[in-house]
Amino acid sequence: MKILVAVKRVIDYNVKPRVKSDGSGVDLANVKMAMNPFDEIAVEEAVRLKEAGVASEVVVVSAGVAQSQEVLRTALAMGADRAVLVESDVELQPLAVAKLLAAVAARENPQLVLLGKQAIDNDAGQTGQKLAALLGWPQATFAFKTEVDGQQLLVTREIDGGLERVALDLPAVVTTDLRLNSPRYVTLPNIMKAKKKPLETLSPEALGVDVAPRLKVLEVSEPPARKGGVMVPDVAALIEKLRNEAKVI
Ligand code: AMP
């Protein structure tokens, strides 16, 4: 089984994002970037399936600026075999990414495409679902556990109030949730080995995909500053405040 894993370069989750002074977006100048955490989980799952003898090849793909090579190299150091960068300086929205991934899937013919459930920069949570629709493949989102059973993939999904188990015919699209696994740390020898692994660069034009944004961002603003908390002397005072000030009861 060949697995394709989509990895996005995003602002590192430890960094507090700053909004540009003109409100046109988030300031990325001199900001530490890293692989989207849900995509690390997707790479880990693919590498584990390879180590278990289920997958034969793990190909990682990223769409974005040239520096996205860094997250691809990290994925290669985690154990992926090969990387594809679809290089573009255009701001790529989920529909454009899904179209690019569909075009890469058409070239690579994977039996499984793994993505994160959401990118932590835009919190869109759309790309996997759009990709499955474009390919016409079954999808299981928010995966908590995966098991391969012949030509089927059994996925336990996190849903409101519990877990749901679904069986998908392959090829299929799966998006990862937080509890699927704990991604490994990359070791120095593996980082060195990853430098020699193949990384192919393509363009959206070569894949025949129009990546022009379909949505226009009107304004980006900081969330309102939180007001300071107040200590109340007793439960009666708390209820009085909830009723008369917050008006929530
Ligand atoms: P989103 O729909 O933007 O929240 O992203 C969901 C998932 O789609 C991410 O966790 C990635 O696996 C994948 N993805 C989104 N954008 C990109 C990108 N530019 N390159 C590669 N994968 C991406």
TrEMBL record:
<dbReference type="GO" id="GO:0046395">
    <property type="term" value="P:carboxylic acid catabolic process"/>
</dbReference>
<feature type="domain" description="Electron transfer flavoprotein alpha/beta-subunit N-terminal">
    <location>
        <begin position="23"/>
        <end position="211"/>
    </location>
</feature>
<dbReference type="InterPro" id="IPR000049">
    <property type="entry name" value="ET-Flavoprotein_bsu_CS"/>
</dbReference>
<dbReference type="GO" id="GO:0009055">
    <property type="term" value="F:electron transfer activity"/>
</dbReference>
<keyword id="KW-0813">Transport</keyword>
<comment type="similarity">
    <text>Belongs to the ETF beta-subunit/FixA family.</text>
</comment>
<protein>
    <recommendedName>
        <fullName>Electron transfer flavoprotein subunit beta</fullName>
    </recommendedName>
</protein>
<comment type="function">
    <text>The electron transfer flavoprotein serves as a specific electron acceptor for other dehydrogenases. It transfers the electrons to the main respiratory chain via ETF-ubiquinone oxidoreductase (ETF dehydrogenase).</text>
</comment>
<dbReference type="InterPro" id="IPR014729">
    <property type="entry name" value="Rossmann-like_a/b/a_fold"/>
</dbReference>
<comment type="subunit">
    <text>Heterodimer of an alpha and a beta subunit.</text>
</comment>
<dbReference type="InterPro" id="IPR033948">
    <property type="entry name" value="ETF_beta_N"/>
</dbReference>
<dbReference type="InterPro" id="IPR012255">
    <property type="entry name" value="ETF_b"/>
</dbReference>
<keyword id="KW-0249">Electron transport</keyword>
<dbReference type="Pfam" id="PF01012">
    <property type="entry name" value="ETF"/>
</dbReference>
<dbReference type="InterPro" id="IPR014730">
    <property type="entry name" value="ETF_a/b_N"/>
</dbReference>
